[in-house]
Amino acid sequence: MTATRPTLHPPHAERTGTVRALMRLRTYVGPAMPAIYASMAAYLVAQLIALAIPQVLEAIVDGPLADGDRDAIVPLALLVLALGAGEAAMFALRRWLVIGPTTRVEARMRDALYAKLQDLPVSFHDRWPSGQLLSRAVSDLGLIRRWLAFGLVLLVMNLVVIVVGAVVLISMSWMLGLVFLACSIPLWIVGYRFEGRYSEVSRRSQDQSGDLATAVEESVHGIRVLKAFGRGKHALSSFRAQAEQLRSTEIEKARLDANIWVWILIVPAVALAICLVLGVQLAAQGELSVGQLVAFFATAAVLAWPIESIGFLLAFSLDARTATDRYFDIMDSENAVRDPERPAALDAPRGELAFTDVHFRYQDSPERFGDLLDGVDLVLRPGETMALVGLTGCGKTTMTALTTRLYDVTSGSVTLDGVDVRAFRREELRRHIAMAFEDATLFSASVRENVLLGRPELTGDAAADPAVAAEAERVLDEALRIAQAGFAYDLPDGVDTKVGEEGMSLSGGQRQRLALARAVAAKPAVLVLDDPLSALDVATEARVEAELRTVLASTTALIVAHRPSTVMLADRVALLEDGRITAVGTHSELLHESEHYRFVISSLEDEERRAQAEASDLIDGEGLESRPTASVATRPAEQTEPKEAIR
Amino acid sequence: MSTVNGVQGEERDEYTKAESRWIRRRSLRLLGSLLHPLRAQLWVTMAVIVVSTAAQVAGPAIIAYGIDQGLPALMRQDWLPVGLAGLAYLVTGAAGAFLIAWYIRMAARVSQAVLIDLRTRVFLHTQKLSLEFHESYTSGRIISRQTSDLDAIRELMDEGINQLVRGLLYMLFTAIALVWLDWLSGLVLLATLLPLVALTRWFQVRSQKLFRRSRVASAKLIVQFVETMTGIRAVQAFRSERRNERVFGDLVEDYRDVNARALGLFAVYNPALNFMGYVAVAGVLLIGGFRVADGVLEVGVLLAAVLYTKRFFDPMEELAMFYNSYQSAASALEKISGVLEEQPSVPDPAEPVDLWTADGRVRFESVEFAYTPDRVVLPRFDLDVPAGQTVALVGSTGAGKSTLAKLISRFYDPTDGVVELDGVDLRRMHPKDLRRAIVMVTQEAYLFSGSVADNIALGKPEATFDEIVSAAKAVGAHEFIEGLPNGYDTDVNKRGGRVSAGQRQLISFARAFLADPAVLILDEATSSLDIPSERLVQEGLQTLLADRTAVIIAHRLSTVAIADRVLVMEHGRIVEDGSPADLIGGTGRFAALHAAWRDSLV
């Protein structure tokens, strides 16, 4: 018994890690524990039956066989059969009992991980590639489930069985029993040493497969770039390098595995060889009956699997520990963007959005850099449309992300109707403020579901009510009209066509318009649009802008703008420069007052010069004045071939 | 078999017999081709495992010898037989142990070699498959082929094969030893084989369907998971967390349900095996016991027969486990072989034409393009772009501009007609030549994990650092890159969310600049740039495009200023074609577009 101690309760403090790490699973495993205990009990009964069968053998050998009593053999053989049936039934029970509970633990942990990841702020996701998250959600949790159902049950119970078996062996012959046990001691020592090395390699291997998964994802998501540059081979070579690393780790793992197997197999062989010689000698001296000798070897045979399995089960437990650590790496991540304990609430926000002395820096930004946002002060009056203008990378997108707490300010505050956005529950805040992003993400769902994403009350089960369905239809129509996304009706299944990764692929402009429709459909008090029209052509952009004006008349809006045309939507313009708002005013005011603004927004001066030069050189100077109408007769393509092409 | 060709019918639960046979053959062929190069190692591995298993099986026979021969001899003070038995037990045990360790290491080498081969093949093939395939098959599925399916195969190779080979050999040797020791006991064992086979057959049929369903369920789970994590901003901004949790929860429950059913099957199969083992033991005991009582059989032999009979069934549980991993791996292999069977719709030529240095003349000759026969995107047209010309493609969204660009870069092949570079059909060019000559920059500026410099160097892997910097300078990206925490060494993945869309475009522009192609296609490549950056890029473009052919798609007509020629497209047709000045001066669509655009600049 004491020989088993080092494994589960090692003497050194830092070695307690494995058990303590696995104990963290308790929160989730709790409800499954009774089933796991019951399964352990069933397994123990099964093994005790297995240990009883050699006793029957002994009875047969020393009884009927020695006496030549044929009739007595039959009931004893039937007893063996009955015990066997019992053992099989217990084995079935052992498995059946844990199926439901442990798969439910796995499902619960998976749901919890997903919920946690959705809750964690964007800054977390900036740091964690999705491949690493995926390997935790799928393979690590599968491994933990298998460990709970088999590994844990077998590890604990096999130790018990070994102890019981040892007692049985010693009671048969203390000398043989002791020899057998003494010989297993090296096994515990080796297993104990094995633990540290294997866990290190095992963690490395799991991390490397996570990295490999990330490489695969990138090669698929970036396929257009790889194809455009013909860099498939190049990507392959770096993928290969990673795969080779994983391979050598796996081979290292196999080496450790092979070493422990040597011990696992050789120790019982030595023990049994000694027992054979010793046992035969004891039998020759008459200290042991032949039946007892037979029973001894039959018992040793029963014990062979529990003893052999310890090494494998230890390795399994270490894998499970690694998986558990990786799981809790995420579950322990502190979410700095939390809901307040006593949240504020606004029934009908007026939509006053204010930035007061807002500072922001990314956590891992080096100290030599100043804050990205370095004291932003800006007030959007209710109903006002404010354009946000500044150089690429000056923090405009970051500023928009602060409004819905995708990130939290480093210091200062963002307020909605005078209430700090951090005082709201995020759910409520994001109901009041809707966003459209420049890189428009659509999900694998219908156009309808994507557009009505911000209106859960109009979709799903609620839409069974005809009144709700009609309202949903109206909102959808309106949003698609405003965003000029009427193309959705022409898709194969109209607005029920599935889009996103699993659905139809749409062009960048189409996706952007749907994302805009989504933001509009949310009917927020504040609309935050991050350069929402960048992928649209001029004509479509003009139509969207015309429609947007009606929405923006009644909604507070913050619009990141790169183009004068977008700026024209705004009542006022804010210029973000070196982390501060350096000017606020109308477009024409800023054009007059701010040189930086002219630099950032106006291509007119250059363009004017260039266009006028062209105009005077090539046309007679009136071309620009006489604006042609939009409807022009179509000319056949052939006739439009330029001269140099027709050679 | 057209119904299950390639990835078709992959999501189905049931197949006809002919279809199953087709799929099975296909995956066996794949397996064969993977193992073929390793056959020498495989033979050695086999030999090792045969010897080591034989050594392992010898145990009970040696014990029987020790008891039956050693005991009477020792009564006569003859230590030799029992000493021999002890020594033999020790030697066979030690030999078995070392050989198995050797086997484990060799098996790992073989399986890792197979895995790396398969990973490489799937990766390479995925890269070869055309965009058309990727767009319809979806990234989530192609990713799960390369991750979870390969994991299933890894599990089989790591543990499954080990179990199968060792288990089968063990059973075989055990049966041989038993027959050799006592053929009557062997007969008893043989009698139990029939129900054993029937039971296993039942298990196989049931489990196959379940494992297939399990794969499908896990793939769905993965797609939902990845999509949520990559679109986390939109998820949070639109409060879809709760709804996503419900969707994901349902998928998790489906997956759990399938898994639980499969496990339930095991809970029937394994104990049934176990019970059959005891039926055989009881039979051997009965038949052997009578003969020992009659004095025609030795006790030691009976003990050995009982041990062998019981041991015969031991690996069955492992074999059933093997079936577990085999089923997952088999359906994984079926799907992977399906992906590998997909032919790229834009195939590499068998005998490529040499075109080392291209001048850059692009010609479309009666080209037509349609996704499906009833969805013609580009009706038949001709177009000739002389080397060195800069062409601006203008038109509303969906007019076919991008499709035309994709035909030049051979992301698609025309349905009919020929696209030529310097008089050579693109389909006959070596992909290396083609990609060196023609580069396309799209709006979605994808960055790979790695440094900014790595990302730019993708345009020319052998580029020096100075070349990278001068490419960045040429497109006006140098300043912002210098401003990143580690300059050119900044890891874009770690701060992926922080390199803005415009900055991404600048990086991918620098990438194209560095690649220095004869034909450059810019598909909305400057859409996210702010005006100062665009000004810089425009200046850069003047020099960049001076001596090369360029096709520029841009909604912002500022680009047109640097074009030699403008093509206006509408509904897949080129409706206007001329120099910018001519078109602006005319009364066509372009003149109208240009006027509208100029208005927007105020």
UniProtKB/TrEMBL annotation, chain B:
The ABC transmembrane type-1 domain extends over 43-328
Q: What are the record's GO terms for cellular component?
A: plasma membrane
PANTHER family named in the record:
ATP-BINDING CASSETTE SUB-FAMILY B (PTHR24221), ATP-BINDING CASSETTE SUB-FAMILY B MEMBER 6 (PTHR24221:SF654)
Say if the entry is tagged with keyword Cell membrane.
Answer: yes
Transmembrane residues, as ranges?
Answer: 42-67, 79-104, 164-181, 187-205, 266-290
SMART domains assigned to the protein according to its UniProt record, in alphabetical order:
AAA
Q: Which GO terms describe its molecular function?
A: ABC-type transporter activity; ATP binding; ATP hydrolysis activity; ATPase-coupled lipid transmembrane transporter activity
Q: Does the keyword Cell membrane apply?
A: yes
Family classification: Belongs to the ABC transporter superfamily. Lipid exporter (TC 3.A.1.106) family.
Which keywords describe this protein according to UniProt? ATP-binding, Cell membrane, Membrane, Nucleotide-binding, Transmembrane, Transmembrane helix, Transport
Give the principal location in a single coarse category. membrane
Name recorded for this polypeptide: ATP-binding cassette domain-containing protein
Subcellular location field: Cell membrane
Q: Which residues form the ABC transporter domain?
A: 362-596
- Topology of the protein relative to the lipid bilayer: Multi-pass membrane protein
Species name for this entry? Agromyces bracchium
Top-rank lineage group of the source organism: Bacteria
- Pfam families tied to this protein: ABC_membrane, ABC_tran
